[in-house]
Structures are given as structure tokens and as C-alpha cells.
Design brief:
Elements lengths: L2 E5 L11 H13 L4 E4 L3 H7 L7 E4 L2 E4 L1 H11 L9 H27 L2 H12 L4 H22 L6 H18 L14 H10 L9 H10 L2 H12 L9
Parallel strand pairs: 1-2
Antiparallel strand pairs: 1-3, 3-4
Helix pairs in contact: 1-3, 1-8, 4-6, 4-7, 4-8, 7-9
Bound molecules: glutathione (GSH).
The site of glutathione has 12 residues, from helix 3.
């Protein structure tokens, strides 16, 4: 079986700067299947492989799947996935966590990267590194306004910074509650898709230290960082420098 994951590139031990790309990458690593990563950067390249213009996309023997949730469902259908949950009730509970992280807290991170001026400056500096003036110009003139528009359309863009941080704090406290009694969510003894999703999102805070406030909040909980380290150790492969 030939598998290719089309994703946005990462750095600093964070496999991708896109949380949904990273969670698919983590799932593939944990499955232990052979796969290739194709890092895409330009909109044109992305549109060539993705009908939604978004990543991740996975190609399995010429068949393409878009949307990380759909991709994980497909991997689960084809393989004996190590993250499956026996109890239907726990599976439902964890699926809701998966949605909450991927569809709600994702936008809190998006806000910090694209709407908060300090966050955006840090992210662009990390992303562009030593890129030439033309790349910078294009990113600032086209890519940034597109991300801001997307955040505004979603509704996340117009929020107040303190409200976004209060939501992240509340989310972290909910996770702490769910970790009572065991090493992973719901006190389970091995990660689920929801754990991978949490780890792929919060790993972004350590991407070249672009979200120092979030890193501090995670560290202050005392339990989330070791929890993320446990997930990375289970999945194997590259680990964010921040968690090493
Ligand atoms: N809900 C989707 C989100 C996909 C998504 O929004 N991907 C972003 C990167 S994190 C993207 O491709 N953005 C490109 C753009 O908006 O132009 C999933 O889970 O796959």
C-alpha cells in the first residue's frame, strides 16, 4: 500500500505547523505503516491535491481523502488501529473531545497566530526564518490577509484576546479533570484519537516558542506537559523540542 501525506511543513521538532496535519502524521506513525510526507507551501500546490484547498490530504493507492477526521476514520477502517476505544460511551465522550479541540480550540490558536499582533509577529518570524524579501512580501500581502479573513468569517477573529486566553485556560482545566485517575484522557491507559488531537494542537505552542503564554499555562497545570510527553513517546518519531 502506497501512502502519501500532503501537509504543511513544521520545524523545531513540531512535525507540521498545522494541527490537523500533525494529528494525521501522529496517527500514521503510531500505526507503524510506511508513508511519505510531501510538504506543500504554496496555495497552487495545495489546490492541486485538495478539493477544499486545505490540508491535510492523504493519498492511499491513488485514492485521496481530505479532512483530518475523515482521514482518521479511513485509517481506522483499513487498519487495526491502536487508538480504538472499547466502551461505546467512552468512544462518544472522546469523539466530542476530538471535535472540541479540532473545531473550537483550534481557533483559539488561530487567533494567537493571525489576529494577535505580537503572536502574529512571532509566528511569521519563525515561519519565514531567512526567507528573501519577495517571499515575505507575498506572505504579508496575500497569505496574512487571507488568514485574517478566514478568522473573521469564522467569528474567532473578532474576539477579545483576554476572552481567548480565558477559554484556553478553561480548556486546560477541563483536560486536567479528564486526566484524573490515569495517564491519558478519561483515565485510560493508552492514548485515543482525542489525545493525539490535544497533543497536535498544544505542540504548536512550542514551535520556536511562538506561544510563550500558552506554554506557561500548560506548564502551570503541572500535568499537561508530562501527558503530552507520554503521547509523543507512545506514538514515536519526532517530538517537539519543547517536550524533549
Ligand atoms: N477541519 C480541517 C481543517 C483543515 C485546515 O483548515 N487546514 C489549514 C491548515 S491548519 C489549511 O489548509 N489552511 C490553508 C488555507 O486556509 O488557505 C481538518 O481537520 O482537516
Amino acid at each position: 500500500m502506497a501512502i502519501t501525506l500532503y501537509q504543511y511543513p513544521g520545524g523545531d521538532g513540531v512535525g507540521s505547523v498545522s494541527p490537523p496535519c500533525l494529528r494525521v502524521d501522529m496517527a500514521l506513525r503510531w500505526l507503524g505503516v510506511e508513508f511519505k510526507r510531501r510538504n506543500l507551501r504554496r496555495g497552487g500546490e495545495v489546490r492541486n491535491v485538495s478539493r477544499t484547498g486545505r490540508l491535510p490530504v492523504i493519498d492511499i493507492d491513488g485514492e485521496r481523502f481530505v479532512e483530518s477526521t475523515r482521514i482518521l476514520d479511513e485509517l481506522e477502517r483499513r487498519y487495526n488501529a491502536p487508538w480504538t476505544v472499547e466502551s461505546e460511551r467512552d468512544a462518544a465522550h472522546l469523539r466530542i473531545w476530538e471535535y472540541a479541540i479540532n473545531e473550537y480550540y483550534y481557533w483559539c490558536g488561530y487567533y494567537i497566530r493571525w489576529i494577535d499582533p505580537a503572536g502574529r509577529e512571532r509566528f511569521l518570524a519563525a515561519l519565514l526564518g531567512r526567507a528573501g524579501w519577495f517571499t515575505r512580501f507575498m506572505v504579508e500581502k496575500t497569505f496574512v490577509p487571507k488568514q485574517v479573513r478566514r478568522a473573521m468569517l469564522h467569528g474567532a477573529g473578532g474576539r477579545k484576546k483576554e476572552d481567548v486566553f480565558a477559554e484556553i485556560e478553561r480548556g486546560l482545566q477541563l483536560l486536567v479533570t479528564e486526566l484524573r485517575g490515569g495517564p491519558f484522557l478519561l483515565g485510560r491507559d493508552r492514548p485515543s484519537r482525542a489525545d493525539l488531537t490535544v497533543c497536535s494542537l498544544f505542540s504548536q505552542a512550542g514551535y520556536h516558542d511562538t506561544m510563550p503564554d500558552v506554554m506557561r499555562m500548560v506548564e502551570d497545570t503541572g500535568v499537561i506537559k508530562p501527558y503530552m510527553q507520554r503521547i509523543c513517546d507512545t506514538v514515536g518519531g519526532e517530538k517537539p523540542r519543547w517536550l524533549s
